[in-house]
Amino acid sequence: MGCCYSSENETPEQDHEERKPLIPPPVSKPPNGTDWITTSVPSARTDEQALLTSILTKTAQNIIDVSAADSVMMEQHEYMDKARQYSTKLAVLSNGLPQKKALALPSLTSQPHQVLASDLVPYSDVQQVSKIAAYAYSAISQIKVDAKEDLVVQFAIP
Protein backbone atom coordinates (compact mmCIF):
# COMPACT_ATOMS: atom_id res chain seq x y z
CA MET A 1 0.00 0.00 0.00
CA GLY A 2 1.54 3.31 -1.07
CA CYS A 3 4.65 1.57 -2.35
CA CYS A 4 5.43 0.88 -5.98
CA TYR A 5 5.62 -2.84 -5.14
CA SER A 6 2.23 -3.00 -3.44
CA SER A 7 -0.57 -5.02 -4.87
CA GLU A 8 -4.32 -4.65 -4.81
CA ASN A 9 -4.90 -8.01 -3.13
CA GLU A 10 -3.16 -7.30 0.19
CA THR A 11 -4.77 -8.76 3.26
CA PRO A 12 -5.76 -6.60 6.26
CA GLU A 13 -3.13 -8.39 8.36
CA GLN A 14 -0.41 -7.18 6.00
CA ASP A 15 -1.84 -3.66 6.16
CA HIS A 16 -1.84 -3.85 9.98
CA GLU A 17 1.79 -4.94 9.96
CA GLU A 18 2.73 -1.94 7.82
CA ARG A 19 1.06 0.45 10.24
CA LYS A 20 2.40 -1.16 13.40
CA PRO A 21 4.68 1.29 15.25
CA LEU A 22 8.35 0.40 15.35
CA ILE A 23 8.75 1.74 18.89
CA PRO A 24 6.16 0.46 21.36
CA PRO A 25 4.34 3.01 23.53
CA PRO A 26 6.20 3.90 26.73
CA VAL A 27 5.39 1.93 29.85
CA SER A 28 5.51 3.83 33.09
CA LYS A 29 5.23 2.48 36.60
CA PRO A 30 3.12 4.14 39.26
CA PRO A 31 4.74 5.01 42.57
CA ASN A 32 3.21 2.00 44.37
CA GLY A 33 5.21 -0.44 42.20
CA THR A 34 2.39 -2.13 40.25
CA ASP A 35 2.74 -2.36 36.47
CA TRP A 36 0.28 -0.58 34.21
CA ILE A 37 0.36 0.84 30.69
CA THR A 38 -0.51 4.46 30.14
CA THR A 39 -3.80 4.95 28.38
CA SER A 40 -3.20 8.65 27.73
CA VAL A 41 -1.05 7.95 24.64
CA PRO A 42 -3.98 7.19 22.31
CA SER A 43 -5.90 10.23 23.56
CA ALA A 44 -2.81 12.36 23.10
CA ARG A 45 -2.51 11.07 19.55
CA THR A 46 -6.21 11.76 18.97
CA ASP A 47 -5.83 15.29 20.34
CA GLU A 48 -2.78 15.85 18.19
CA GLN A 49 -4.61 14.50 15.14
CA ALA A 50 -7.60 16.75 15.85
CA LEU A 51 -5.29 19.74 16.21
CA LEU A 52 -3.53 18.95 12.96
CA THR A 53 -6.88 18.50 11.21
CA SER A 54 -8.09 21.88 12.47
CA ILE A 55 -4.87 23.55 11.30
CA LEU A 56 -5.23 21.89 7.91
CA THR A 57 -8.85 23.03 7.64
CA LYS A 58 -8.01 26.62 8.56
CA THR A 59 -5.14 26.65 6.09
CA ALA A 60 -7.34 25.28 3.31
CA GLN A 61 -9.90 28.01 4.00
CA ASN A 62 -7.29 30.78 3.91
CA ILE A 63 -5.55 29.70 0.71
CA ILE A 64 -6.33 31.71 -2.40
CA ASP A 65 -5.68 29.74 -5.56
CA VAL A 66 -4.19 32.31 -7.93
CA SER A 67 -3.70 29.75 -10.67
CA ALA A 68 -7.48 29.56 -11.08
CA ALA A 69 -7.68 33.33 -11.60
CA ASP A 70 -5.99 33.06 -14.99
CA SER A 71 -8.63 30.71 -16.31
CA VAL A 72 -11.45 33.24 -15.91
CA MET A 73 -11.35 35.53 -18.95
CA MET A 74 -13.70 38.50 -19.21
CA GLU A 75 -15.24 39.75 -22.37
CA GLN A 76 -14.48 43.34 -23.32
CA HIS A 77 -18.02 44.53 -22.55
CA GLU A 78 -17.95 42.79 -19.12
CA TYR A 79 -14.69 44.54 -18.33
CA MET A 80 -16.10 47.92 -19.38
CA ASP A 81 -19.28 47.32 -17.33
CA LYS A 82 -17.26 46.51 -14.22
CA ALA A 83 -15.02 49.56 -14.75
CA ARG A 84 -18.09 51.80 -15.11
CA GLN A 85 -19.66 50.23 -12.01
CA TYR A 86 -16.50 50.78 -9.94
CA SER A 87 -16.18 54.39 -11.17
CA THR A 88 -19.79 55.13 -10.22
CA LYS A 89 -19.34 53.56 -6.80
CA LEU A 90 -16.12 55.53 -6.24
CA ALA A 91 -17.80 58.79 -7.26
CA VAL A 92 -20.71 58.14 -4.86
CA LEU A 93 -18.37 57.34 -1.98
CA SER A 94 -16.03 60.27 -2.64
CA ASN A 95 -18.95 62.74 -2.72
CA GLY A 96 -19.82 61.68 0.81
CA LEU A 97 -16.38 62.62 2.11
CA PRO A 98 -15.76 66.16 3.36
CA GLN A 99 -13.72 68.15 0.87
CA LYS A 100 -10.50 69.64 2.16
CA LYS A 101 -9.48 73.08 0.94
CA ALA A 102 -5.91 73.58 -0.16
CA LEU A 103 -4.04 75.44 2.53
CA ALA A 104 -2.49 78.75 1.60
CA LEU A 105 1.15 79.41 2.28
CA PRO A 106 1.72 80.39 5.88
CA SER A 107 1.99 84.09 6.49
CA LEU A 108 5.12 85.22 8.29
CA THR A 109 3.65 88.56 9.11
CA SER A 110 0.22 90.04 9.38
CA GLN A 111 1.41 93.29 7.75
CA PRO A 112 3.45 92.47 4.61
CA HIS A 113 3.34 96.10 3.36
CA GLN A 114 5.45 97.20 6.33
CA VAL A 115 8.02 94.48 5.62
CA LEU A 116 8.25 95.52 1.97
CA ALA A 117 8.49 99.21 2.88
CA SER A 118 11.27 98.70 5.43
CA ASP A 119 14.93 99.41 4.76
CA LEU A 120 16.94 96.94 2.68
CA VAL A 121 19.44 94.57 4.23
CA PRO A 122 22.85 96.25 4.32
CA TYR A 123 25.22 95.17 1.56
CA SER A 124 27.90 94.24 4.13
CA ASP A 125 25.50 91.68 5.68
CA VAL A 126 24.82 90.16 2.26
CA GLN A 127 28.58 89.93 1.61
CA GLN A 128 29.17 88.33 5.01
CA VAL A 129 26.47 85.68 4.38
CA SER A 130 27.92 85.00 0.91
CA LYS A 131 31.44 84.67 2.37
CA ILE A 132 30.24 82.21 5.08
CA ALA A 133 28.39 80.16 2.47
CA ALA A 134 31.55 80.00 0.32
CA TYR A 135 33.62 78.80 3.30
CA ALA A 136 31.00 76.15 4.11
CA TYR A 137 30.98 74.96 0.49
CA SER A 138 34.79 74.80 0.47
CA ALA A 139 34.84 72.83 3.73
CA ILE A 140 32.21 70.35 2.53
CA SER A 141 33.96 69.82 -0.80
CA GLN A 142 37.23 68.98 0.98
CA ILE A 143 35.70 66.16 3.04
CA LYS A 144 37.12 62.85 1.89
CA VAL A 145 36.50 59.35 3.16
CA ASP A 146 39.65 57.36 3.84
CA ALA A 147 38.56 53.72 3.58
CA LYS A 148 40.55 51.51 5.94
CA GLU A 149 38.87 48.27 4.82
CA ASP A 150 36.40 47.01 2.25
CA LEU A 151 32.81 48.05 2.77
CA VAL A 152 31.55 44.76 1.31
CA VAL A 153 32.97 41.68 2.96
CA GLN A 154 32.43 38.10 1.78
CA PHE A 155 31.40 35.70 4.52
CA ALA A 156 32.93 32.25 4.47
CA ILE A 157 29.84 30.07 4.56
CA PRO A 158 30.69 26.39 4.73
Write the topology of this structure.
Elements: H1 12-19, H2 40-62, H3 76-96, H4 112-117, H5 123-141
Would you write up a description of this structure?
The protein has 158 residues and is an all-alpha fold. It has five helices and no strands. The protein has helices spanning 12-19, 40-62, 76-96, 112-117, 123-141. It starts with 11 loop residues before the first helix and ends in a 17-residue tail after the last helix.
What can be said about this structure in brief?
49% of the residues lie in helices and 0% in strands.
Number of helices: 5
Termini separation (Å)? 41 Å
Number-wise, the strands total: 0
**C-alpha geometry:** flat
Low-confidence segments, ≥5 residues, pLDDT <50?
none
Query: What percent of the residues sit in helical stretches (DSSP H or I)?
Result: 40-55%
| Strand percent estimate | under 5%
Radius of gyration: 40 Å
Note the main sheet.
none
Class derived from helix and strand content: mainly alpha
What is the H/E string?
Answer: HHHHH
Query: What is the residue-mean pLDDT, rounded to a whole number?
Result: 76
Descriptive key words:
single chain; 158 residues; mainly alpha; 5 helices; flat
